[in-house]
Amino acid sequence: MKTSDFYYNLPQELIAQTPVEPRNSSRLMVLNKENGSISHSVFSSLFDYLKQGDTLILNNTRVLPARIFGTKKDTGAVVEFVLLKNLGNDTWEALAGPGRRAKPNTEFAFSNKLSCTVMEATPEGNRIIKFNYSGEFYSLLDEVGQMPLPHYITEKLENKERYQTVYSKELGSAAAPTAGLHFTEDMLSQLQEKGVNIGYVTLHVGLGTFRPVKAEEITDHKMHSEHYMIPDVTAKLINDTKKNGGRVICVGTTSCRTLESAATYFGEIKECSGDTEIFIYPGYKFKCMDALITNFHLPESTLIMLVSAFAGYENTMNAYNTAVAEKYRFFSFGDAMFIE
Question: Which of these, 89, 143, 194, 293, has the minimum number of CB atoms within 10 Å of its CB?
Fold first, then answer.
């Protein structure tokens, strides 16, 4: 298939710039992947579509305030860094712009307690930087850092926590697992009272999520790598759910990628961790996921390809065109879709 097969026309005004309040008041499209039927609801009514014995799998990654602005110590020039990956020993891989100002051996100050030295440039043009600081690193980062919102969000985010899920825990993402932004703590409690199980996995979302697919043929695209973890308690919950005839419902493409990576690499769901470059597109046979809760994704992105693999290409493109016609809100702060 060609990348252009996954294009749809999206008016600019449908790209959500701010989150809705409360979180679960966003709209919900319900798509039946067997017959392609579509119905419209609100996210708080997800309760009506889940059954006792179902299991929701949530990605509990927490977004780093990874966008930081450093002042070059010798000239005062300002460079924006976006932290991508913790390499250990206070060393990170980061985007830097403008890159020409961030040459190896240059130093940048972010505050009087936090600075960095550029160690080297990677072949892709990123920078390896080493931090110097006095105090607790993540506290200092929280003081100076901003949320690394996607480029299509131009409004200022007033509350950093609105780009975090209410269950975020494990620091390490460069972007939020946005399907989870719709849940409130009360809603999760009510689902559990109904008999819906909740399990947690971790996948640290990389900025590669937002990179466009440039290859003409989708099979020529190289996926970015992301780190994931499945704890033993979640693995047992998933296996018990399957054994008892319940559905495993992934909240977001990141949870899906986590489970399908483990099932592909190990042939089963078990306690594990690693880095995954799994690329899911039409023709892929799902090994674990039974249903999916997801937002509406960018045209020609790997995420709409994943949705098409699960829901069917025709069903997916029809659902997206319907969402445009019905003026759904798109992307990170947008509305949701439940595919069953």
Answer: 89
- CATH 3.40.1780.10 segments of the chain: 3-63+159-339
For the record, the structure tokens of 317 come out as 């493109």
The secondary structure of residue 15, as a DSSP letter, is B
End-to-end Cα, the chain, rounded Å: 24
pTM of the full predicted structure? 0.93
Distance CA 145, CA 65 (A): 5
Q: Which residues contact 250 (CB under 8 A, 6 or more apart)?
A: 57, 256, 259, 289, 291, 292, 293
Maximum distance among all Cα pairs of the chain, rounded to whole angstroms: 65
Architecture of the domain delimited by 67-144: Beta Barrel (2.40)
Cα 232 from chain centre: 22
Q: How many CB atoms lie within 10 A of CB 312?
A: 18
Amino acid at the residue 327:
K
CB within 8 Å of 220: residues ≥ 6 apart: none
- Distance (Å, rounded) from C-alpha 89 to C-alpha 295? 36
Distances (CA, A) of 132 to 27, 65, 75, 117, 301: 45, 17, 19, 8, 37
Query: CB count, 10 Å around CB of 4?
Result: 11
How would you write the pLDDT of the chain (340 residues) with one tens digit per residue?
999 999 999 999 999 999 999 999 999 999 999 999 999 999 999 999 999 999 999 999 999 999 999 999 999 999 999 998 889 999 999 999 999 999 999 999 999 999 999 999 999 899 999 999 999 999 999 999 999 998 899 998 989 999 999 999 999 998 999 999 999 999 999 999 999 999 999 999 987 776 779 999 999 999 988 999 999 999 999 999 999 999 999 999 999 999 999 999 999 999 999 999 999 999 999 999 999 999 999 999 999 999 999 999 999 999 999 999 999 999 999 999 999 9
By DSSP bridging, strand 127-133 and strand 91-97 are antiparallel
Contact present, 83 and 94 (Cβ < 8 Å): yes
**Class of CATH domain 3-63+159-339:** alpha beta
